[in-house]
Amino acid sequence: EPRSAILVLSGSSGRVEADRARLLAQHGALALALQWFGGEGQPPGICEIALEVFLPQLDLLHNAHPHLAVLGTSKGAEAALLLAARDARIAVTVALSPTSVVWANVGAGSDGSDHPYRSSWTWHDTPLDFVPSDPAPTPDVSAPPAYPTRHDQPPPTAPTRVRPARA
Question: pLDDT over 90 for what percent of the chain?
Fold first, then answer.
């Protein structure tokens, strides 16, 4: 008898988090690691992914145990937070390397195009507000070198898009 049920979502690598799910299972959880893009019949990238794609797995897990959790890493953490805000059945959300906003797509959508930037997510066929990636960040040459990711802060070209895109 499982002590909880957990949906495990990877980040933009697209790998299936089987080892993480196995570890959770060893500690009494029913854990389901899911490939949610890049597979057959799925968008090749994280571009306008319908959050509803996760609902059948959440239904399955919730039917097995009422204590439902979602664990996500990076873009999967973005999805986990968005799901938790929309599905009251989710009791626990674990977000590893999360972000505070919905970011633009990472890779191509079902149409094969990755530009112009679009939301990573939709809900009921409506793209969620998002912050576009800055295509050409300007390095600060007055400071010691740093190697930030493109998701460390919103691009200066889109400051008004941050508030509506809060995850």
Answer: 77
pLDDT-derived band at 165 (thresholds 50, 70, 90) equals confident
pTM across the whole model: 0.84
Asked if 17 and 33 count as a contact pair (C-beta separation under 8 A), the reply is: yes
Higher per-residue confidence, 104 vs 153 = 104
Residue indicated by tokens 């050409």? 136
> Please, are residues 61 and 36 in contact by the beta-carbon 8 Å criterion?
no
pLDDT of residue 96: 96
